[in-house]
Design a protein that fits this description.
three-stranded antiparallel sheet; four-stranded mixed sheet; PH-domain like; 2 domains; 7 strands; alpha+beta
């Protein structure tokens, strides 16, 4: 009998804490009016550079002024300036487009880093 009570408390208490945690997250999302996903920016890679459409104002960044690109598992970070990067998730480009190959065509090798192959 005592073992059953301890088992229920031992499993029930953590389950209750986890349930309350997820409930509080849903509550905060509702209060803040957040959506599960939203469109933040779009990138268009061209031979001239990168066109960024964010809000109402498009920006263009030339290839010669790019700081660098870093490829990690699942995503590529394209740094247009030292402290400004855009994320290019794998599989988000138009069908058949190889983003990393295009970056290799337009950026010098010293500005490209494939972190997927680096050893720790």
């Amino acid at each position: 009998m005592m073992g059953s009570v301890l088992l229920i408390v031992g499993l029930g208490l953590p389950a209750a804490y986890i349930g309350l945690f997820f409930k509080s997250i849903k509550f905060q999302i509702k209060i803040m009016g957040l959506k599960s996903s939203r469109h933040v920016y779009s990138l268009r890679l061209s031979s001239d550079g990168v066109d960024v459409i964010s809000g109402d104002e498009p920006n263009q960044f030339k290839w010669s002024g790019m700081f660098g690109a870093y490829r990690v598992p699942g995503c590529t970070y394209l740094y247009v300036e030292k402290n400004k990067a855009f994320l290019l998730p794998d599989g988000q480009a138009e069908e058949g487009a190889d983003v990393w190959a295009m970056l290799n065509d337009h950026l010098p090798a010293e500005k490209l880093r494939d972190c997927r192959t680096m050893k720790k």
